[in-house]
Amino acid sequence: MTETTSVFDSDREAGFGDYVALLKPRVMALVVFTAVAGLVVAPGSMNPIIAFAAILFIALGGGASGALNMWWDADIDRLMRRTQKRPIPSGKLTEGDALALGVALSFFAVVMLFLATNLVAAGLLAFTIFFYVVIYTMWLKRTTPQNIVIGGAAGAFPPMIGWAAATGGISVEAVLMFALTFAWTPPHFWALALFVKDDYANAHVPMLTVTHGRDATRKHILVYTLALAVVALALGLTSVGGPIYMAVAVVMNGWFILGAIRILRRDDAASHADKHLAERKFFKLSLYYLFLHFGALMLEAGLAPYGLGGW
Predict the structure, then answer these.
(1) DSSP letters of 218-282?
(2) Does the global pTM surpass 0.85?
(3) Rounded to whole angstroms, what are the CA distances from 230 to 54, 224, 226, 247, 254?
(4) Are 204 and 211 in contact (CB under 8 A)?
(5) pLDDT of residue 22 exceeding 70
(6) Is the pLDDT of residue 82 over 90?
(7) What is the DSSP string of 185-205?
(8) What is the DSSP code (8-state) at residue 206?
(9) Of 157, 149, 163, nearest to 61 (Cα)?
(10) pLDDT at residue 118, as a whole number
(11) How far from chain centre, in Å, is Cα 153?
C-alpha cells in the first residue's frame, strides 16, 4: 500500500485496533490517570457524569495528539525498531488516515470539554495538543537534544486540565502536579534512550544520547532526578498532600535517586555486558514512580472526609 492510498483501497483493510493504536493507548492511559488525579484532588465536588465526560474528552484529546504525532513522524517510525510495527510503518494505515483522525478528534475533544466543563480546561487541552504536535513533534524533536526537556510539558498538562475542569481555574497545587510530571519526563525517557540509542541515531533524532553520548546523559538523569525529588516533596506540603503522600514521596524519591546514581557509576562496557540492566530497571521504576505519587494524592483526597487524609 502506498502512502497516498486510502486504507479502503488497500488489500489490507485496517481494523478497529489499528485506529486505537494510532491514539497511543499506553500514553493515553497515563493522560487519563494523571487527569483523574487532578480532578479528584481538586477542592469541591463535581457531578460524576460530568467528571466522567471531562476525563473522556481529555483522553480523546491525548489520543488525537498521538495520532497527529504518528502522522508527522511516520518517516522516522519506519527507521526505528521499536516503532516499525505501528499502524503507518506496518502499512495498515496511511498518513492521511492519521491526520484526519487526529484533527477530527482534536476539535471534538476541545469543544466537548468546553461544553461539559469550562473555557479554562478546554483552552488548556487545546494548548496541550498544539504544544505536543507543533512545538514538540514538528519542531523540538528533530532539532535539539533538549526535545524531551521542553517537550515534556505536553505530557505534564493533564493533571492541570483535570484540576481546571473541576474548579474552573489553576492553583499552586495544579502547577506543582504539572511540575512533577514535567521533571519526571527527562529521566524517564533518557533511561529509555540509553538502551535504544541506535534507534534514535538511525532515525537522525538528536536525542541527548546521540548528540552528547551516554555519559553526559547519565549525568543529566541524576540532575533531573534530584530536581524531581524537590518538586515531589514540595507538592506534599500543599493542601493536597499529607502523611501518606509524603511517605510515598520520601521512599520513591530515595529509591529513584539511588537508581540514578547506579546508572551514573556505570560505563558503556558494563552496560552492554548486562544489556543495560540498570537502565532498564530505572526505566521500569520510573513507571511506578508516577503511578504511586498520583495514587497517593488520590488516596489522601479519598480519606480526607473521614479525617484520615491530608494535613
Answers:
(1) HHHHHHHHHHHHHHHHHHHTSTT--HHHHHHHHHHHHHHHHHHHHHHT--HHHHHHTTSHHHHHH
(2) yes
(3) 30, 10, 7, 14, 11
(4) no
(5) yes
(6) no
(7) HHHHHHHHHHHSHHHHHHTT-
(8) -
(9) 157
(10) 98
(11) 9
Burial class (CB in 10 A: 0-12, 13-18, 19+), 162: buried
Q: Which residues of 57-84 are buried (b: 16+ CB within 10 A; e: fewer)?
A: bbbbbbbbbbbbbbbbbbebbebbeebe
Alpha helix segments (H runs only) across 117-212: 119-130, 147-151, 153-156, 158-167, 172-195, 197-202, 208-211
**Structure-block grid coordinates of residue 228:** 524531581
Instruction: Answer whether 258's CB lies under 8 Å from 187's CB.
Output: no
Neighbours of 237 (CB within 10 A): 13
CA 123, CA 288: separation in Å to the nearest integer? 30
- Burial pattern 243-274, b for ≥16 Cβ within 10 A else e, equals ebbbebbeebbeebeebbeebbebeeeebeee
Give first-to-last CA distance, the chain, whole Å.
60
**Cα–Cα distances in angstroms (integers) from residue 119 to residues 8, 13, 70, 77, 127, in the given order:** 38, 39, 28, 35, 12
Interatomic CA distance for residues 107 and 58, integer angstroms: 12
What is the 3 state secondary structure string of 44-67? CCCCHHHHHHHHHHHHHHHHHHHH
Q: Which three cell numbers stand for residue 69?
A: 504525532
CA–CA gap between residue 32 and residue 56 (Å, rounded): 8
pLDDT score recorded for residue 134:
97
Asked if 30 contacts 155 with a C-beta cutoff of 8 angstroms, the reply is yes
Q: Which three cell numbers stand for residue 5?
A: 492510498
Band (pLDDT 50/70/90 cuts) for residue 12 is low
**Which superfamily, per CATH, for 1-170?**
UbiA prenyltransferase (1.10.357.140)
pLDDT tens column, 176-190: 999 999 999 999 999
